[in-house]
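Re: beginner question about structure tokens

> Can someone show what the tokenized structure looks like for a real chain? I only ever see the sequence side.

Sure, here's an example I had lying around. Input first:
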Amino acid sequence: NPIPIKRVVPKHKWISYREQESHLNKIVNIIKSILKKDKKILGISSKDSTFLERLKSKGYNKTKELNKKKDYLLQSDLASLESIQKIFNFKFTENLIKKNGNYDLLVCRHFLEHSRNPLQLMNNFKNIINETGYILIEVPDNVKIFEKSNYFFIWEEHISYFTNNTLENLLKLSNLKIFYKFKFKYSHEDSLVYIL
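And the corresponding structure tokens:
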């Protein structure tokens, strides 16, 4: 069983996440080729901030990042992905749609690996986008961890450890079509980016 959520909430403000981002401009260019600038874009966590900022700089002005206090109603400054993933359920997405309508692109960077039920999370994502909408997923590629038996990268907040194969199995179970897929190589941990 995964560690209880309340036990993985950071205890100090100085604990922060830092993901690789040098590949994001390439992904922005792909989005520019498939999505008009008047379309609605949703980022589900603060992990999506820098990507959404890049899209805004290219003229995508209908972007929204879900806020942990305003949208998720989390009052603790220390609450993060571990707390959000508990709230992001079907009822939450239904209320979000009632308030804002459906979206043309949902962005989910480095969130899926924290989910206790990735299949249900993907179904919740599908609920948010419109019929012609896209979902952008980014997760760490854990092949290097497994090949090198690098146990230092096993982290209590990650429930799932994806590779191309396991992520594609999840997407198949979710009945999602892959339009683009990329693997961006980095020294410690590569990034997998899929546009569905």
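Each token stands for a local structural state, so reading them left to right follows the chain. The first helix runs from residue 5 to 8.
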